[in-house]
Amino acid sequence: MTTYQPLRTFGDSDDEDDLNPFDMVYPKRRCCSKKVICILVAIAVILLVILGVGLGVGLGIKFSKASSQNPNVKPGGSDNSSTLVPSVSPHISTTSITSSKGPPGSTSPSLTASPNLSTELFSPSASSSSAKVQPSGSAPRSPSVESRSTSSSSNFEPTPAFSATSSSTGVSSSRVHTSSPPSSSPPKVTSKTVSPSPSPSASPLPGLCQDVQKVCSPPSDPRQYRVIHLTNNTLRVLLISNNETSKAAAAMDVYSGSFSDGKVEGLAHFCEHLLFLGTEAFPDEAEYSSFLTSNGGYDNAYTSSENTNYYFSVNSDKLEGALDRFAPFFISPLFKESGVSRELNAVDLEYQKDKGLGGWHVYQLMKTISNPDHPFHNFSIGSKESLNISDIRDKVVHYYDSHYSANLMQLVVYGRENLDQLEMMVRDKFSPIVNNDTKAPFFPGTPFMAPHYTGQIVVYKPLSITPSVLIFWQTQPVQKWYRERIIRVLSILFNTETEGSLGLHVKAMGWATGSSFSVEEDADTFSLFSFNVDLTAKGCDNLVDVIASVYGYVAMLKDNIAKLGAIWSDVKELDTASFNHVELPSNVASFVSDMASLMRTVDKPVDFLSPPERYIRNISDFKEIVESFTPQNANILYANPNLASNITNKSVEFPLDCAALSTDNFTFDAFHHIEPYFSTPYSAYCASSKLQEPWTSAKGKDFMLPKLTKYLPTNLTVLPLPSDPPTEPQLIVHDNNFSVWWMQDPDFRLPNLILKCEAETNKLFDSVTHAALATLYDYYVDVAAYSVIQLGALGGYGVSLIPSFEGLYLQFTGYSDGQVFKNFMQDFLNEITKVANAQEGLLELAYKQALSDLQNYNFSTVPYKYVIPLAKHMLADPHYMNQEVLEEVQRLNDSLKENMNSFIDMFRSSISNLTCYATGNLKQETAVDYSQIVQKSLIKDRFVDGSVESTRVVKLPTGIGELGLLTHTLNEGDPNSALFVLYEIGPLCDVNKRTSDYGRPVVCANEALRRHVLLGVLNLAIKQACFDELRTKQQLGYVVSCGSTAIENIENLYFLVQGEHSPYEVADRISGFVANFSENVAEEKTFNQSKNAYLTILQSNYKNLQDQANIMWGRIISRRFQFNFTDILKNVAEEISHNDFKAFYHQFIYSAEQDVFNLKKQFFVAAFANKAFLNFTDSKHEYKLDDVQLFRESADYWGSEDVSCENRTASSGFKLGFKLEVEIPSNSTCFVSTVAAVAPNMTEILVTFDGSTGKGKPYQIDSSELHPAKWCHDNGKKLIPPKGYPGNFTWAEYLSKTETKAVSSDCFATADNTQ
Fold first, then answer.
1. Measuring CA to CA, which residue among 370, 459, 359 is closest to residue 106?
2. pLDDT tens digits for 900-915?
3. What pTM value is reported for the model?
4. Is 790:41 a contact under the CB 8 Å cutoff?
């Protein structure tokens, strides 16, 4: 899935409430589809999310959206780089794929101690997770160690069912970077007073930034700001008031991080963990997170090199209670002795998890070759070995007392209260923080001092099979130059792939499949810039020339240093448009976290939001940085997956003895050393002057400066609203197979618009061949339209393209300057529909990128990222696994162009319907005009007759015990196992064919709505309890998550655990938790709290135009058309009782008593690190499945018609879970029975007797003892009903209450069978 995010947030959401483990709708949009674009985007996204924060202003901030190099570390929670990852098709199980495959080393990875995987696993969006990486080009990505991550993530409205891509994202595909998913709780928009629209231009608004002690914000920003210093402790606080926010948030940033560890490596990170062990005011260590989770919020924290950051969000009416629990962290933490060993184990689990992430391997190599006298050199995560010392608690307390001083803290509080009320809260709660007048930490010297620690070449073995080269330079710290926009401008220069660019050059030469420039670290005393190239085989053979091209580009910059002023002016003009027309952030927790971190490095409040009016044009500063990019000041990390290991010494002494280790080339014999923390094989050398000579003498004749303003908007007038503006989408065109919906934005009143279209066809994924071609086409779009995408992103325009089983989804976003928007659309569509004339080189590059990503899957996929798509593969049809698609892609290469052209022609000729929705600052006629552009581009001749099928989902059977699959993990070097468990609830709305008949909307039955609401309430009740018990107390693994999710329209409760424990043991622990949690369900307090939180979230406002558009689009494309669905859910929620809640849990999740009408349906996938476990027999569990294809063929599917054997084989009617009668001839009785398993030959079945605890009995399907329902009654036999059946048994009642079907009478051997 290809998504390109503009340099404005445009509603990009990584909100913790919008999460769905299967990422069924629009996977969270971290960035884009290409690493380079993402770097540009990441820079701007911060600007957009926080009005410019981080585009060079917030050089110290942590940002959860992008990482430039690391394909395995994902901000917010997955092991993938949010760099521009081209998506693998939505029906293909792949994870952590980036287009810049190189060593994830340029990214300083980060850690979380408690990833909320409902955020991260299934939303390649997402939020709390295993890594929180700074965006390249805007803020450094020093390692941040996240220790918390809890969330309410209550998918109240199961987005999978109501989206264009509902079937498209059941994979953990990190190429999936699309617009934010429709909110799980459909919000309402309340009326609001809107500031007058800025002038219709991108010019700076004069006079905004006169007072340097006040935050400078544009008129379009409805928030109010105030900066205060608390009287008694000088704590600096930023107050932000937004009287319509549905979420409140706060963050505290402490000016102390892993550089302050001293001799105890990981001490700062460990202190962050222990801070959550209760306070004097709230000694229960679960109180803080439980309060947040039960009130629609979550919390998290991270430790970076020079700061530690704590933050949370909560429903806006609960801010004061949250602050009551948050403030004592910095006043009176308990650091409970009883929790020390447990949290020590948690830190070590985090470390063990990170061993499977390539980004950490490379980052630690950078540390290894650095100056050992500088704290950058140290291991920052911590482990049992580094922290397991006798007085570790005392050392933590001493560290806290020495560094957690009010004068080193920055606090941000965001709420709906007015500024005076917020100030009163803060003064009351945070004034007791002690100010010790502690000096700010300062670390003299630098990690890569020339000449001793520069000129080094490290060749190492990456986790992936893709070679790459990373060049990095140490420079002066650029934090002090945040107004000069150095990072922003340099990132654009190096990453924009237009004529004369570096990235385009290395691709055109056949040397690379991707490249990226980023900032590895931006500390107080130094910065690290890097350029990474993902190499082809030809690139490896010409590595000297590849590096020479980098220095050739640097030479061009030096020759044109005076012309950089024009580039700087273009950037200022582009940023001004973004600043003047800001949208509110989707995730206020991330927003306040970034702001608090930024306040540490930005002195004057006027610069907090990075107003372009305050930019400083100083070319000499650029010159100083660019002149640092020399061979003599560089270090090179070369990832070579093919070199053998011949370990002669485990370590090597630095600085290197260059007299003995000098090299003139990149031909190496073997890896001779092992990095001690991540066991990375490597060898280290010094680049000789002979090797450096072509780099030193490189010229810039092949390069030129980019032109950036092709899509710069100029007309930004906000249109007046009609006297009675519509409050829901209007159907303005319905012409047979072409429909256009439109709504002029009545709420946000910004010059923005969004166009969403879906071209419906089942031809993209109806076979593995088409799935492979759809994947290649997705990559081709990345390559062919790359320049359009990048320049559009700079101007504020973005595009998403998502192929799925239902068709092709397109989204265009941007400013409503009509001509520019139209040009951007048309340019993109022209590129993606002219494959017939495509240059061979573009297809070849797309093929190489796809092949590399698919081949790297096994090396980059951690266990939990594997079991989720595997579960989707088993339960959804169609869905293809990575290996299937890889083999097909390789087969297609012989006639690639012919295959691709035929595929595109087939797709464009098979579209049955085109539905578009345009919203924002536009009129009806404009909506029609834009939609017709899409129609003319995609429809080859005419629409075809027919309607599209939706992805089928297995209907899990009841009454046959545990059902699931055991497999081994893909990466044999990963010590972790994973277990993913689903409890199926059922569909929200009718499951049927997609229809173009708008008179037949999809129906949501009342009982389904009740179950949906009850699952939402249970989700809020269970998430934190599950995390606290399984992760915090039982320490089952570092990755622990549970909550609600959906596969397409089918809702489930899930549990996910990854760790070093056997999944057998974990399964027992989960079962125990589920049983014990029934006591919580029995408490009326639990129900009332969760129900109230659910209702509060349902009343939330739309966050921004994108959020609103996603919700409305979901209701359009699902053919549901209930634009007041929130009110419907609210009415249902108000009616449910505590007894309903208990009955729901008893019926679907756990019951201590036998119930013949119990609907518990459990499914699991377990991936073992130890293959020996696969042959282990556990008498407690019955694992049924070892043939995925057989399971899919023998399963029933939601929405399927009754199965008849007429004109088919009898075996086709015996589906798992179907009911029948089994005769016992000896006593003329029959038992009510269930098909529990089907043999591979499809002629034998395993039957269980309902109500019995036995394991069942095998029968041939033509056995004379098998009969249809009612056979015994009709033939005078006695029918034995299930044990415990209440009253007189009837098949009609039994099938209805167990929601099952009976085997059709024509499937049995006896001719006289009737039903």
1. 359
2. 888 988 999 999 999 9
3. 0.83
4. no
